[in-house]
């Protein structure tokens, strides 16, 4: 397993690295720690190129050694890397060569500054390989993982990636399917909440809802089969509504450490206007988010 840990010396990067060390399978992993230095600005008249390079070398060395000290007790192999360029571009370009790329982001304790930050946001959007948006774990005991399934190739790949990267033998895993059916409300006549069970069962809307539930159960069972060899404790949830909203609510309610989901790379009008499910969850989740794209898809 080849993992790229990125750092800029911030507390967010340090938290992401600590989370990755806890979440990832400790066996057969090689950790590369990368610090990207912005290029010298020719318009900066206050500093010569030589002074800039000396200053950045000193700072980069300090940041990387700090990262090594943080993860060394739990890692057999740690390689320290430095590159010059745009951090977002350099990191996104490297994602294809790694089994996982880890970037830091603000967490639940920074509600007034919620989000990813410009580098994490661009890496998530353009990454060719799996990305872990690392935030603080909820507890020091066990792992609680929420996996969103929707039947897409990316969704199934996310399940497989999670099983390959993480030790799930003692994890508490929940498979969640959300039927994206807010339009059903438009077809309902009268007050649906006061309708009898017989009316709900025999109505066209009720038939549709049953079909969505059956579809969700089948998709969850497919995902469960992929995890069976890992033998985690697996539960399931089926909800109806806006997928991103329902997943975020469950992530908060269940105090999960990681939300894992696939990103389809859709760029249609709906996603341009509303933002993709994976993007919104990465921005707003109170925990770490593992995002896995469809094979061959990039942002």
Quick synopsis:
This protein is an alpha/beta fold and 299 residues long. It contains eleven helices and ten strands. Strand 6, helix 5 and strand 7 form a beta-alpha-beta unit.
Plain-language structure description:
The protein is of the alpha/beta class and 299 residues long. It is built from 11 helices and 10 strands. The two termini are 24 Å apart. Residues 108-113 and 267-274 have low confidence and may be disordered.
Q: How much β-strand is present in the residues?
A: 15-25%
**Average pLDDT for all residues:** 83
Could you tell me the number of beta strands?
10
Strand order of the largest sheet: 3-2-1-4-5-10-9-6-7-8
The general outline is elongated
Order of helix and strand elements from N to C terminus? EHEHEHEHEEHEHHHEHEHHE
Residue share in helix: 40-55%
Radius of gyration: 22 Å
Helical run tally: 11
- How would you classify the helix and strand content by structural class? alpha/beta
Characterize the main sheet. 10 strands, mixed
Terminal CA distance: 24 Å
């Amino acid at each position: 397993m080849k993992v790229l840990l990125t750092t800029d010396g911030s507390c967010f990067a340090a938290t992401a690295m600590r989370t990755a060390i806890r979440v990832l399978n400790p066996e057969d992993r090689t950790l590369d720690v990368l610090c990207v230095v912005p290029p010298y600005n020719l318009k900066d008249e206050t500093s010569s190129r030589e002074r800039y390079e000396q200053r950045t070398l000193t700072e980069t060395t300090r940041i990387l050694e700090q990262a090594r000290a943080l993860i060394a007790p739990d890692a057999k192999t740690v390689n320290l890397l430095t590159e010059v360029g745009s951090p977002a571009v350099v990191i996104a370009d490297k994602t294809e060569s790694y089994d996982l790329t880890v970037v830091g982001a603000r967490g639940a304790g920074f509600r007034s500054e919620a989000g990813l930050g410009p580098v994490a946001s661009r890496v998530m959007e353009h990454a060719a390989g799996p990305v872990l948006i690392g935030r603080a774990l909820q507890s020091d005991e066990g792992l609680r993982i929420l996996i969103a399934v929707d039947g897409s190739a990316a969704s199934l790949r996310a399940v497989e990636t999670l099983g390959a990267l993480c030790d799930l033998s003692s994890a508490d895993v929940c498979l969640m399917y959300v039927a994206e059916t807010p339009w059903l409300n438009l077809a309902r006549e009268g007050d649906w909440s006061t309708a009898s069970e017989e009316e709900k069962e025999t109505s066209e809307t009720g038939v549709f809802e049953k079909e969505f539930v059956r579809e969700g159960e089948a998709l969850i069972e497919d995902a469960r089969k992929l995890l069976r060899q890992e033998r985690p404790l697996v539960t399931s949830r089926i909800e109806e509504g806006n997928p991103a909203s329902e997943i975020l609510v469950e992530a908060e309610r269940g105090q999960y450490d990681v939300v894992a989901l696939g990103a389809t790379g859709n760029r249609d009008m709906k996603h341009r206007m509303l933002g993709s499910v994976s993007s919104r969850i990465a921005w707003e989740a109170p925990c770490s988010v593992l995002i896995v794209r469809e094979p061959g898809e990039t942002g």
